[in-house]
Design a protein that fits this description.
CATH class of the largest domain: Mainly Beta
Structural class: alpha+beta
Mean pLDDT: 79
Number of helices: 4
Radius of gyration: 24 Å
Largest sheet: 7 strands, mixed
Shape: elongated
Helix content: 10-25%
Amino acid sequence: MIGAALVAAACAVATSSGAQAPASLRVDGTVVMPGAAAAPRPVPGVWVTLHRVGAGEAGPLDSVRTDARGRFALTYRRAPGDSAVFFLSAAQAGITYFSSPLPEQSVSGEGADLVVYDTTSRTGSVRLRGRHVIVGARDSTRRHPVVEVVEIANDTTLTVVSAGGRATWSAPLPPGAQEVRLASGDVSPEAISAADGRLRLLAPVAPGVKQISYSYQLPAGSFPLALTVADSLPLLEVLLEDPAGTVQGATLALADTLSIEGRTFRRFVARDPAPSSVVRVTVAQVGGERRNVYLVGILLALGMLMLLALGRSVRRPATVPLGWNGELGPKPEELARRIAALDAAFQRRRAPTVEERQEYERQRGGLKAQLTDALARHGGGGA
C-alpha cells in the first residue's frame, strides 16, 4: 500500500511539474437534412465519425450512430498545443459530408450540427457564378499559359450527382488548348477530365459554391482567342499580361492594372454580360521570349486574390494564396477533408485490387505531405 501511494504521489508530481494533461472535449450535435421549404429535419440512424488529421498521422478516432432524433455525442482528448485538425463526417446516399474544423473546446447545439443532403441527377441545377480568365505572356516554348478560375453554384437543397457517366458540370476549352491540368480548388483532380474540347466534372456538387481552377497552354495560332459567355454569368474577369494585347467584347471595361513579381497585368471586368456574347483576346505576334518559371503560380495567386477582393460568399473555407512568390496551396482543413473523403471512398470498395490500393496510398501520401507543409506554414507541427 505504501509503495502504491508513493507511485501515485510521484505521478501527481510529474503531472503538475511537466506538460499539461490532454483536455477532455465533447461534441453534441444533430445530423440534419434541409428541405426546399420546410425547416431542416433530423436524420436518424446515420453514422457520424470523428477524424483527426495532423502532420504525422491521420485517421478516424471514433464513431457513433445518430439516435431517433438525429442526435449524437462524441468525446475525445486534445493535447495542449496540438495543431491537428479535428472534424466530423457523415454519409448520406453514398456521399460523405464534412463539418467545419472543431474548435479547441467542447461544442454543442447548432455549432455541432452536421448537414447532409438528398441527391438529384438533374445537372441543370449547377450554374456558373463567376469566371476569371488569366492570360500570361508567351513563354520560352512560344505558348501562352492560361489559368481559369470559375465558381459553380448549386442553389438547391439537393446534391447533384452524375448519372450514366454524365458530367455534373462542364465547360468548353478553347481550340488548341494543350496540357490541361486541374490547378487547385474545391474538387479532387481525379474528378476532372478533359476530352473532346470540354472540361468535365464528375464529382457530386453539394448545395453551395465550389471553386475550380485549371490551367492550359495555348499556341500563338490560337489567337485571337474567342471566349463565349455562358448564360446568366454574374461576373466575368480577364487579366492580360501582354502589354500589346487587347480584350474586347461582353461590355468588359478596364478596371485597373496589377503588378506582381515584375509582371504587369491589365484587368478587365464585366458584370452581368449579355448571354452568348463573345470576348476576343489578341496578343502581340512578335516579341522576345520570356522565362516564366513561376508564372502559373503567380496567375493562380492573382485569380484567388480577385475572388477574395470581390467578396465571394462560400459555405466552407476556400483555397487562398499563401504568399506572393507563386506558392499556392489549400488550407490544412481543406486537405484534411480531402484525406477523409479519400479514406471514405476507399473503405467503400469491397475488394480493392493491388493497383487500386497502391493508387490510394499514393494519393493519401501526397495529401499528407501537403498537409504537413500546410500545418508548418500555419504555425503547426502537430503529432
